[in-house]
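Why does residue order matter? Because the sequence determines the fold. Keep that principle in mind as you read this record.
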Amino acid sequence: MKSRHALPLALITIVVGALTAASMLLIDWYPDQASEQAPRVDHLLWFLMICSAVIFTGVTAVLIYCAWRFRVPEDDESEGPPNHGNTRLEIIWTVIPILLLVVVAVWAVKVQLDNEAVAADQTAISVTARQFVWEFDYPGTNVQSGDLRVPVGKQVRLDMRSPDVIHSFWVPEIRFKQDVVPGRTTHMIFDPTKVGTYPIICAELCGAGHGLMRGRLIVMPQAEYDAWLNQAKQQVAAPPANAPAPAATPGG
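Structure:
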């Protein structure tokens, strides 16, 4: 490349690259990481963003430079010289996307397999998604709640069903979203790593009340989770406070 093209193109590339990098670094793109799976997903997404930023910077810099350097007078309506292409460039911009696609595909498969690895010990919870609420049942306990409570540091398996329309279970902090489909049981596993309360969002348009279909994921220390579950079991087993007393039997 001739020096008269190299210097201005390099300056434009630096400016565009700096603006692109600033938009990546100054904006908080991702929510907190609250699961073992989240860092794996974020690393892959950051790789994709960096590759996209590099490609965007290069293409934008060339477009800006060409639009400035090779502009023609307003009254010039002549045709440009014929261009039969550049074989070297065509090979480069074909091979690079293929290599990137292979790398991303292999990486994505590995992330998927690692994220779906089943632990020996799980907390199983049944999820019912209905217009426009989430219901969580803890098998073997008769406990049902409107919030999803799980212990930290232990893998959770969600078995999800819907009696009406398609919903989608999404907690941004655990980086998973799973559709809940009528007539099918869908599953999700995640390993919570951070105590806290996180929003559960329905990410599939499910009717007029879709925007109100929210819930909470409450990640608790194991001891607090056990205490809450035991208390909930006792409340389910106890008779209602206003229940009538049993009738006296004759001769009692």
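The first strand starts at residue 122 and ends at 130.
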